[in-house]
Amino acid sequence: MATLLHIDSSVFPADASSSRAVTDAFRRTWREQHPEGTVIHRDLATNPVPHITAHAHTAGFSDPATHSPEQAAAFAERLKLIEELERADAVLIGAPMYNLTIPSTLKAWLDNVVLLGRTAGNAQSVKGTPVTVVASRGGAYGPGTPREGYEYVQNYLSAILSDFLGADVDFIVPELTMAPANPDMADLVPLFEASRERALDEAATKAKHLAQRLAV
Length: 216
What we know:
Blueprint: E1 3-8, H1 18-33, E2 38-43, H2 54-59, H3 69-87, E3 90-94, H4 104-113, E4 130-134, H5 154-164, E5 168-172, H6 189-215
Parallel strand pairs: 1-2, 1-3, 3-4, 4-5
Helix pairs in contact: 1-6
């Protein structure tokens, strides 16, 4: 049966997080369509993974037989994350924009799972794996907007997930999420609400189609 690896990185709980609301909608539909499947939920906000260390990094480029005890311990933790990703038939990532980029906890996870010669480079052990990214942001950073040049979430994740890992990446983008809380953005609330509904609909549709495809 298919396995969905669901990763959240928002520091806020579900009732206050746009990315979690959309990933939850995706996961609920996935379960409805594929009840026999497995969902692994990794919450990087409540249970962050270790940031990459010199021991974990250098161990990835050396023979395990030569590893020091420190390298062996650090690399063992890294391998758990890599193998979890490799076992997944599909991946769902909540990636809110914080200060123009992804949360540091999500960056730490990526630093652990991107391993040249295995997941990245010529090998690409997760090549073709469908990855759905919910890239929420407080403002608008799409083409034609004043802040288009500050979009470092989709650009970065496309490069890492698609170009480096070879994954089949798809984005859902809820925008203007700060509008209800920022008086200066009050006139943008209707646009935020429309973006949120569109994102929730996309999540349900994409989850349904993906679950059905993998079930076959």
